[in-house]
Amino acid sequence: MGEDAPGVRAMTSTMSPRFVTAADGVEVAVHELGGQGPPLVLAHAAGFHGAVFAPLATELAADFRCVSLDGRGHGDTVLPPGTTLDWHGLAADVLAVVEGSGLDRPYGFGHSSGGTALLMAEQARPGTFGAIYCFEPIIIPSDLPPGADTGNRLATQARRRRTTFASRAEALAHYAARPPFDTLAPAALGAYVDHGFVDTGDGQVRLKCRPEDEAAVYESATAHDAFARLGEITCPVTVACGALTPGCTGDRAFAFEDRMPAGRSEVVPGVGHFGPLERPDEVAASVRRFFARSG
Predict the structure, then answer these.
(1) pTM, to two decimals
(2) What is the CA radius of gyration of the chain?
(3) Is-contact 125 106, C-beta < 8 A?
(4) 171 vs 1, 166, 177, CA distance in Å?
(5) How far apart are CA 48 and CA 144, in angstroms?
(6) Which residues pair with 134 in a beta bridge?
(7) Are the CB atoms for 47 and 158 separated by under 8 Å?
């Protein structure tokens, strides 16, 4: 495969996901990441996939059975023709994992759009989760959703994303040298590349998440009603943010905490928006403390 980037190793995939079916027929890929104890469902950020949580799951393995998913249009969860990337669909994927895996009030961990998907899943089906930890969920603080933001900056960047590389090693070196991927822990970046690409049959590899699908997720980020319905969530919830994330202050997290009966906020030092992938150990310690208190 060629030379890896310094300090980063491309992983050899040993992860074969199973599949569960969402309410609208989407076949959702589920990864068993190991561990023992009560189940913990992990939902990833836009553009990523469930296998990227392997390092975080390793940190949590002594306390939780970690189960992650590939959200629709990401990883091995194929987006059927005509299926939209409305965020209620992301929540439906989460509910499919809980129901299809036979989980009884599991804990939930979500990063970015994944955190929002967990909250929306709990809103759609109250009592699904025993407690939820959200790291920088994408929620516009408005009771009236402004609607889809067509062509926003993140969507524009996603549509320009390079999709094909000569090998996983080349893809790994490419990402390791570019923000924000250059801040990821080596194991997380390796997992991202390993599961995030498919062999094309001509010696190259291609990104599984189509740029257009990632862009559609970003454009739909302002079209859901999660903020208006936060008061419906009665299970314990932590809304965490990274101390290094511009604009993501404790005050902003508190704005969400204050609307939930059992909400709380936390600022995780030394990390930015990609904290769960940058410092899995630090974020795992925060997660462990919260769920221990949640009982």
Answers:
(1) 0.93
(2) 18
(3) no
(4) 10, 8, 10
(5) 28
(6) 110, 239
(7) yes
From the number of C-beta atoms within 10 Å of its C-beta (0-12, 13-18, 19+), residue 152 rates as middle
Strand partners, 239: 134, 265
For residues 132, 39, 71, 54, the Cα torsion angle rounded to the nearest 10 degrees is 100
Tell me whether the omega of the peptide bond preceding residue 179 falls within 30 degrees of 0, making it cis. no
Short-list 274, 54, 280, 295, CA closest to 181: 274
* Residue keyed to tokens 């027929």: 25
Q: 112, 86, 110: which is closest to 24 by C-alpha?
A: 86
Report residue 212 as tokens.
Answer: 């257009």
pLDDT given at position 151: 78
Round to whole Å and give the CA distance between 184 and 179.
9
Residues paired with residue 266 on neighbouring β-strands, in sequence order: 240
Q: Is the pLDDT of residue 206 over 50?
A: yes
Per-residue pLDDT at 174: 97
pLDDT tens digits, one per residue of 114-158: 999 999 999 999 999 999 999 999 998 889 988 999 879 999 999
Sheet with 18-21, edge to edge strand ranges: 18-21, 27-32, 65-70, 39-43, 107-111, 131-135, 237-242, 263-268
Looking at residue 207, what DSSP letter applies? E
Q: What angle do CA 73, 153, 46 make, to 5 degrees?
A: 25
Q: Rounded to a whole number, what is the distance in angstroms from the first to the last CA of the chain?
A: 47
pLDDT digits (tens, 9 = 90+) for 234-286: 999 999 999 999 877 666 677 788 899 999 999 999 999 999 999 999 999 99
